[in-house]
Amino acid sequence: MTQQESTSALSRPLLAAVGLAVLLAIGVATLGLVLGTGNQSEDVPGRTGPLALVSIDAPDAASQPCTSLIEKLPVGLPSGKDMLPRREIASPAPPAAVAWGDAKHDPVVLRCGLPRPSELTATSQLRVISDVQWLQLPGSGSSTWVIVDRGVYVALTVPDDAGTGALQDVSTTVRDLLPKQPVKTEAR
After folding, report:
1. What are the sequence ranges of the domains in the chain?
2. Parallel/antiparallel/unpaired status of strands 82-87 and 76-79
3. Where are the beta strands (DSSP E) in 14-141?
4. CA-to-CA distance for 117 and 155, rounded, in angstroms?
5. What is the pLDDT of residues 82-107, one digit of tens each?
């Protein structure tokens, strides 16, 4: 065997091993891109298009405070690290209702002009955010927060994973627009 033949014979297995390693690395990278990292949000069917809301009793929905509030609400609300745009509400849309959402998040829904919540009592635990008092009504997967210290009752339904940004932004708008009033813990 000549010296050239032994070098060439030794290089073939080395080249094959290097080539196999490169192909393996490319395969792993491609698989990672195709399958993703597992923590990215996925679009969920039904979260696009107009949002259907059921009508509920809202005797003060046509009031001046509700009309003013609906006009002044932000076009986007924070949900975790994301900003939710206003979402169209399907016809027939309930009066004084606004929604925010996108394909990756459950919607945040505001309704103005509701009756006093029966859960509001003298011993209710209220949360103050930006000088606005809220009553939390926990639900399954979301909570409805009701503003109880203004001339109208305003409910904001927020998914549990949305954080507090939506409450903060709505509180600021309400604080700056609607005059504060004493909390009425008894039915009128």
Report:
1. 64-177
2. antiparallel
3. 76-79, 82-87, 97-102, 105-114, 126-129, 132-138
4. 10
5. 999 999 999 999 999 999 999 999 99
Tens-place pLDDT, residues 138-180? 999 999 999 999 999 999 999 999 999 999 999 999 999 999 9
Q: Which residue's entry shows tokens 């001046």?
A: 64
Phi, psi of 179 (to 5 degrees): -65, 140
Residues 6+ apart with CB under 8 A from 39: none
Within a 10 A sphere around the Cβ of 132, how many other Cβ atoms? Answer: 24
Reply yes or no on domain 64-177 having CATH 1.10.600. Answer: no
Q: Which of 144, 137, 81 is nearest to 108 (CA)?
A: 144
Average pLDDT over residues 38-44: 45
pLDDT over threshold 90, residue 3: no
End-to-end CA distance of the chain: 107
